[in-house]
Amino acid sequence: MNTIINHSLPKAYAAIEKETQKSGFTMASDTMACSFLRTMAATKPGGSFLELGTGSGLSTSWILDGMDEHSTMISVDYDGELLSIANKFLGNDSRLTLTLADGEEWIKTHPNLEFDFIFADTWHGKYLLLDEVLQMLRPGGLYLVDDMLPQSNWPEGHLEKATNLVKYLERREDLVLTKLNWSSGLIVAAKK
């Protein structure tokens, strides 16, 4: 077994990646993590999806590729320039709602929404407002995060935040958790 992705990439992926590189954005999820997201998305037919931290839409394209035609996704980001890249290449997908908003504001103004799949790829929903986001997860729903292994672009003190997140998730009795020491470091948790 190897880590080579032998399946086709999402249609828009190459174009989004090219625009992302031009923009100078360096915090995108790697292709192995994205492949995992696509596989996990396929387990939720007719599902309701939330992505916190759209970035330029690289991971968004993979999640959409795994979703069926009856699923819907809300993807939230505060950076209009990056969100415009996602909108350019993914905005015509009727299953997707791209939302320009601060993560904290969006979470606090949508407390009653429920999701089958949450990918938290930004501070809000991962290190901030975690309880509020996990409250949005339906029983049987999946909560996913990446970048849990040390990264060269982590700011000072970030390792402690990541370590504390893992400990907190492990203590929660309403989650079944698996940590994957693979790709950039992934966590997948299912809500009981």
Automatic annotation (TrEMBL):
Task: Please name the GO terms of the biological process aspect recorded for this protein, alphabetically.
Answer: methylation
**CDD domains per UniProt:** AdoMet_MTases (cd02440)
Keyword set includes Transferase = yes
**MF (Gene Ontology):** methyltransferase activity
Q: Which Gene3D superfamilies match?
A: Vaccinia Virus protein VP39
Q: Does the keyword Transferase apply?
A: yes
Q: Which UniProt keywords apply?
A: Methyltransferase, Transferase
- Per its UniProt record, what InterPro entries does this chain match? SAM-dependent_MTases_sf
Check the record and name the PANTHER family matching this protein. PUTATIVE (AFU_ORTHOLOGUE AFUA_6G01830)-RELATED (PTHR43167:SF1)
What is this protein identified as?
Putative O-methyltransferase YrrM
